[in-house]
Write a structure and sequence with these properties.
The chain has about 500 residues and is α/β, with parallel strands linked by helices. It has a domain of about 90 residues: 2-Layer Sandwich (GMP Synthetase, Chain A, domain 3), CATH 3.30.300. Helices cover about 30% and strands about 25% of the residues. The protein contains 15 helices and 25 strands. Strand 19 and strand 20 form a beta hairpin. Helix 7 packs across helix 8. The chain starts with a helix and ends in a 14-residue tail after the last helix. One of its GO terms (molecular function) is 4-chlorobenzoate-CoA ligase activity.
Length: about 500
């Protein structure tokens, strides 16, 4: 297996004149990009970074950030990207936990850097200025030579922390490249594909898009910050051929007034991950894009791809079957190991084989997290799901999100998919709220797209194939559904009452 630095050199040698990266009107070929990245590798060495050192970044998806990712791969530096919306406390946790020596940031993270206690004792490199990242990229240096091997660490990602501090997920060069190769194969990417680089480079989806583009001599079209007009302009200007996004961004694109199918006619392949997609959105995307391929990816920072469904719109809700580098099982909830499996249709916890080529090997300095998640060679995902009679996997939500009402288990995802098919529902999130009689009562938070009442939605559920005990008993109409920066529903905020309800006397237009 090649290390990522050597893999990038192979891409440069195959396609030196092909467009490798673009941002706005700027386009850079593989040959030119390698020269700029080589200058950056030299600059990192000049400030004292060596193979095995850690570098933390807090940056948007600009071409300089993508360049830094590749420079670290060539230099053998472990890049540790964090959300550019990071707070000072969150940044300090990453700096302390990763034992970094250098922090690189752009203006979006300036406030957090200024408020960080630990940043003041590190080498801090901003985007601009005489000694900034842009200046290092503009320098001159001999062609960089790969310093890392396949077994060296490439990147460390931090998982989203909800009840505890985020956990570091260190990943080796061989696992990162295996994931990129699998991504190309499972999405049927061809030579020269162009992908919209909007999923953040602190997230598995953004990194996978960046690495897989290089494998096929393709282009990564940077979009530093998502906005539908800017995304549509980038797609049209650079003739983007594939999209790999979270469902929230797809929702925003197809519901925007600037969207028309002809503006995205160049896009022939759709992929999504990061969250389940409702039946209603699946249908709308299939009609609007009419893609040649519509892929549902199910995975995590730890393993990357668990399963793949390559025709998502045909079997809504299905996560498909185990990916080419993986084996999957569903085991009873609370199982001590992966030896006992659930029958088709029986819900349990989804577990993935740790022998897979894309798998991590354990969390960074968190042995208690390893003991909880890794058992006898299997990774316990914390996700609930079941296999159907065809052998396809259905993910029904996080174990922590499961609603137990009157002794029955209710999956929020199933209820959300049902409600999403109502034409007056723009977005929906379902949670369980405390109830003296039922323990938890199924509650739907709805962002309306038109005139609709609780009675209308209840009638819609009654007329569907949704079981009676799964019907929401409460509805709350809200202005927005809370989401994370990468589009995941933040159900815990709804449970905590952190939302803005629509005034009861107001009827949507």
């Amino acid at each position: 297996m090649l290390d990522l630095g050597t893999s990038f050199l192979a891409s440069v040698e195959r396609d030196p004149d092909a467009m490798a990266i673009a941002e706005g009107e700027q386009t850079i070929t593989y040959g030119d990009w390698y020269r700029r990245i080589s200058a950056l590798v030299d600059g990192l060495g000049q400030i004292g970074l060596r193979k095995g050192d850690t570098l933390v970044t807090a940056m948007q998806n600009r071409w300089e950030n993508a360049s830094l990712h590749w420079a670290c791969q060539l230099a053998g530096i472990v890049i540790t990207p964090v959300n550019w919306r990071v707070t000072a406390d969150e940044l300090d946790h990453a700096l302390r936990d990763s034992a970094t020596r250098v922090l690189v940031h752009d203006d979006a993270a300036s406030d957090a850097v200024a408020g960080s206690v630990l940043a003041h004792g590190l080498t801090v490199i901003p985007l601009g200025g005489d000694q900034g990242l842009a200046a290092l990229l503009a320098g001159h240096a001999p062609d960089a030579v790969p310093q890392a091997g396949p077994e060296d660490l490439s990147v460390m990602l931090y998982t989203s922390g909800t009840t505890s501090k985020p956990k570091g997920v260190p990943r080796r060069h061989r696992a990162e490249r295996a994931a990129a190769i699998a991504h190309v194969a499972q999405n049927m990417y061809h030579h020269g594909e162009r992908t919209l680089g909007v999923m953040p480079l602190y997230h598995t989806m953004g990194i996978r898009s960046l690495l897989s583009a290089s494998v096929i001599g393709g282009a990564f079209i940077c979009l530093p910050r998502f906005g539908v007009p800017g995304a549509l302009d980038a797609i049209e200007t650079h003739r983007v051929t594939n999209l790999y996004l979270v469902p929230t961004l797809y929702h925003d694109i197809v519901h925007h007034t600037a969207f028309t199918p002809d503006r995205v006619a160049c896009v022939r392949k759709l992929g999504f991950a990061g969250a389940s997609m409702t039946d209603g959105l699946l249908q709308k995307l299939a009609e609007a894009f009419q893609p040649d391929l519509f892929v549902n990816h199910y995975g995590s920072s730890e393993i990357y791809t668990f399963s793949i469904c390559q025709d998502a719109a045909t079997k809504p809700g299905s996560a498909g079957r185990a990916a080419i580098n993986q084996r999957l099982r569903v085991v009873p909830l609370g199982a001590a190991d992966a030896s006992e499996t659930c029958a088709p249709g029986e819900e349990g916890e989804i577990v993935a084989c740790m022998q897979g080529d894309e798998a991590f090997e354990g969390y960074w300095n968190r042995p208690e997290a390893d003991r909880k998640a890794i058992r006898d060679g299997w990774y316990f995902t914390g996700d609930c799901g079941h296999f159907d009679d065809d052998g396809d996997l259905f993910v029904t939500g996080r174990a922590d999100d499961m609603i137990i009402t009157g002794g029955e288990n209710v999956s929020p995802v199933e209820v959300e998919s049902c409600l999403s098919l109502h034409p007056a529902v723009a977005e929906v999130a379902v949670v369980g709220l405390p109830d003296a009689r039922w323990g938890k009562v199924v509650t739907a938070f709805v962002k309306r797209a038109g005139d609709v009442t609780e009675d209308d939605l209840d009638a819609h559920c009654r007329d569907s194939d949704l079981s009676n005990f799964r019907r929401p008993r409460r509805y709350v109409f809200v202005r927005e559904i809370p989401k994370s920066p990468v589009g995941k529903l933040l159900r815990r905020l709804l449970v905590a009452g952190e939302y803005e309800a629509e005034p009861t006397e107001t009827t949507p237009a």
